[in-house]
Hints:
The protein has 485 residues and is mainly beta. It has 6 helices and 27 strands. Strands 9, 10, 11, 12, 13, 16, 17, 20, 22, 23, 25, 26 and 27 form a 13-stranded mixed beta sheet that branches. It has a 4-stranded antiparallel beta sheet with strand order 1-8-3-6, with no helix packed on it. A 4-stranded antiparallel beta sheet has the order 2-7-4-5, with no helix packed on it.
Amino acid sequence: MRQQLSIEGAFLQGELDPPFHHLAFEMPEGATRLEVTYHFEKLDAEEAKRIEEELRKSVPYGAGGQNVVDVGIFDQRGHDELTGGFRGWSGGSRTGFYISHRDATPGYIRGPLAPGEWSVVLGCPTLRGERARYWVDIDIDVDPNAGASDVQLFAPVQVKSHARNGERRWYKGDFHSHTVHSDGYNSIDEYVVEAGRVGLDFLAITDHNTTSHFEEIAMRTDDLLLVPGEEVTTAWGHANVWGLGAWVDFRCTDDAGMQRVLDFVHERGGLFSPNHPKPGYPWEFGGVQGYRVAEAWQGPWRLGNEESRDFWERRLRNGERVTAVGGSDCHSIAPARIIHPWTLGNPCTWVNVQGELDEAGVLDAVRAGHAFVSEDPTGPFLEFTAECNGATYMMGDAIEAPQGSDVLFKLGYRGPVEKKLRLIRDGEPWQEVVAEKEEQTFEFEARLDEPGYVRTEAAGFRGRPERGEVVHALTNPIYLRPEQS
Length: 485
């Protein structure tokens, strides 16, 4: 037996706070399959083109002239902020979805269709014109004789740090990618093969606003370490979350809402990182405080990464300890449709892990700042350390020693010759050398006088020199914390 329901409504200008509509419906006893389809009112193509051209005068990237309505769903546990019964999200990348006991559309979580009040959630990140009407059709297959399902909801596991032993080693990875579980074009299978081909040791899958990929990752036994994550995606900024083992709410529209999300993540031991804070994809939650990671590099360097690096460095200059990471934000690779000319590992984040490679080790390395970013898995390789009063420090560490102590910085480089190697102190160039060999170590002497930080970059020309230098690699800082005598 099939039950059918239709709901219609509209998003209206001036009534988009918050920009979400929760459309309640009743899930009956004996439900075995839920199917939801929807469509919404769009502007005339010429009008949408005119609006987009006008917007691009001030917003060069990411400004669309058409209405956008996204879709997701919550089950009988409710749709309360942060703790609701989330069962899936596909944004605007699909026109419908299904959920059954044993299967679901990617982006949605399979499992029991428990009776009670469910709700389809519609979001309107972009409304052009006065209104956008929508129509939602809900079909439910019901078998009164089906009995209770023996399938349980998948429960992700929160990553726990633990004492680590053994040698330290550098591992290569990518902290930002998307699959068919959101708006990516490839399966996790295809990404695993590609990550192996380019030489990655780990890959974070960070699909938009969903955790449906967590179960697939948990079932895999690849040599490649897969790190489950979520990109919390809003109209005012995106942020990656790793290590939480839970869905993270994305229905926040202001600083206070995003601060609650950040606090929720940190209270449960996860990591939170604002993503690609550059023109077209800005981070507009300027009042949010306390994040410990920032995506300072995504995709090829010329695609807005000076702005992303500067966003991170402003945090450092403010005295915050924020770890820079990089991620490709990859959405497609062959054999799928290619939508950008780069692949996984562009850029590549190197993390220094003690002992075996596992998710906790990778995230602990990020927490400590024991990481650097290069343009791809071949490098360049940078190892930045310091010696002071008999102790050795690596990037991410803080030198806490008496004021006036001598510090010896060491920069190990492996990469092409003739690249410029720069030491940046408190946001300003401090030292610069040129690599004359493919593998060199440089030393720089300093005094521990004022609080601050020192980080390094490798830069040079590539492709079209007339367009200026690009950064090939950058490290996290060594922090300076002189003790007053």
